[in-house]
Each structure stands twice: as structure tokens, then as C-alpha cells.
Amino acid sequence: MTGTTRKTVQAYHRARFAGDVAAAAALLTDAFTFRSPLMSADADGHLAGLPGFLQVVTGVEMISELYGDSEATLVYDVETLLPMGIQHTAEHFRLRDGRIEAITLFFDATPWHSVLAAAGSA
Predict the structure, then answer these.
(1) pLDDT tens, 58-81?
(2) 75 CB neighbour count, 10 Å cutoff
(3) For every residue of 28-57, which 3-state class applies, written as one string?
(4) CA of 85: how far to CAs of 49, 64, 71, 82, 112, in Å?
(5) Taking a C-beta distance cutoff of 8 angstroms, is the pair 83, 115 a contact?
(6) Strands (E), 6-117
(7) Which of 20, 82, 105, 106 could form a disulfide with 15 if both were Cys (CB 3.0 to 4.6 A apart)?
(8) Positions of the chain with pLDDT lower than 70, given as ranges
(9) Which contacts of 83-90 are long-range, i.e. CB under 8 A and separated by 24 or more positions?
């Protein structure tokens, strides 16, 4: 089962950062939920924000990948064009029947507040 978790989470991670929203969406359950320091969303809300986010991403460096039967944790750095530069990130995935049911994203959101305020989103 850990192999299925690894395959699903890695496929989602690749699709998301490649901007392939359809491929990422195919890996989510109908009851998917997303939480981060800046937002909570269902699948549609989460996926709708990806194209805009990817416009400021210049790279992703994986630090650690941990997999269990129905959960995974990725730790990685997101390199951005924004003033914060590198965003240190941890992401926890919960899976059901081989698809992603929930993602919880952890990062220091403090630098994002001024960026969002300047963009009129805060």
C-alpha cells in the first residue's frame, strides 16, 4: 500500500508544479479538502489557485519524502520571484482508496501578508 501512496503523491506533486491541473484533479477524491495558513478550500478552490501561484514559482527542491499506507509528508523549498524568495514548506497528505482526500500545507505565512495586501487579496 505504501507504494500506491508514493505513486499517487509523487504524481500529484509533479502534475501540480507542472501546471497540469487536470492530472492533479484526477488524483483527488470527491470529498477533498485543502488547508494552509492562508486558506481552506475544496478541490475546485484549491486547483483554481494553482495557475496564479505557479506564475511566481521558479523551482522546487525536495528535501524529504515520508510515506505510509494512507498518508505522506513532503518537505521541500519553493523558490519564488516574490520578496520572500524561498518558501520552506511541509505538506501532509491523507489518502483514501489510492486517491488524495486531504492536504494540509505548513509554512510561515508572514511574508505573504504584504504580498497579498499589495495585490489587493488580503
Answers:
(1) 999 999 999 999 999 999 999 998
(2) 14
(3) EEEEEEEECCCCEEEHHHHHHCHHHHHCCE
(4) 19, 20, 29, 6, 11
(5) yes
(6) 28-35, 40-42, 57-67, 71-80, 86-96, 99-106
(7) 20
(8) 1, 115-116, 119-122
(9) 83/111, 83/114, 83/115, 84/111, 84/112, 84/115, 87/111
Residue 26 neighbours by CB under 8 Å, 6+ apart:
none
* The three grid cell numbers given for residue 29, joined into one nine-digit string: 477524491
Buried b (16+ CB within 10 A) or exposed e, 44-56: eebbeebeeeeee
Judged by DSSP in three states, 65 sits in strand
Is-contact 15 6, C-beta < 8 A?
A: no
Q: From CA 4, how far away is CA 1, in angstroms rounded?
A: 5
**Which three three-digit cell numbers place residue 84?**
520572500
The whole-angstrom separation of Cα 6 and Cα 55 is 27
